[in-house]
Amino acid sequence: MEFVDKIVIVTGASSGIGRATALAFAEHGCFLTITGRNMANLNDVSSLCKNKGAKDVVIVKAEFKNLEDVESIVHATVEKYKKIDVLVNNAGINVVEDLENTKMTNFDLLFQVNVKSMLRITQLAMPYLVESKGNIVNVSSYCADKHVPKFLLLGMTKAAISQLTKTTALDYAPKGVRVNAICPYVVLTGIARDRFDTREEFDKYYKDAAAAIPLGRIGEAEECSNAILFLASNKSAWTTGQCLVLDGGKGLVS
Description:
Layout: E1 7-10, H1 16-26, E2 31-36, H2 39-52, E3 56-61, H3 67-81, E4 86-89, H4 104-132, E5 135-139, H5 152-172, E6 178-184, E7 187-188, H6 190-193, H7 199-211, E8 219-220, H8 221-232, E9 243-246
Parallel strand pairs: 1-2, 1-4, 2-3, 4-5, 5-6, 6-9, 7-8
Helix pairs in contact: 1-2, 1-8, 3-4, 4-5
């Protein structure tokens, strides 16, 4: 793929899909900015990226509940590299609550981190993406338009992300900027493991999830990063405004 010497921002890169995406871009010789909350993990990802072929890596420790932190990502990237070619909006959080137990503080937090901060970084990066004829790949979710029990707030925020993807794609297509998203179902990540108190609960959840998927297994972070790289590449040059569902066929049966 054609990412040699491109400037790529990956948010939420300290683990999971973001980590896999940063490593995948690194193999193609790009310059990276990676962000996250865990500095030790970011340093580890940075070292791995350089070993895999990244020309350079800027690390920005950022809490996406703080807009100042979000703004610093674009500022640090432009200060170092002078341009932006690809923005991967991956950072996000979840809480597991149904309607009856939903806390308004969690409503505010999820919309701040998952939606408002994504909108802000996209606003700031867009002039540079217009200049480079670059593109954006957002990480939405299967639950953006499908029911997942107790993922009420996540589904609401991811639906907003899918709409942001489509609207921004249409608005900026005349300026040469493509905007797409991936919508993964259950993916095995460290963050997902942290939702469970015991290994038994974790194993049961993933066993039950896999049984409901026609392909018979849950997804891997690297499968998501493969899709992100495809959407960011010239191989999908005639693709914009699309929300690519990665679900092993789950949406066909529910």
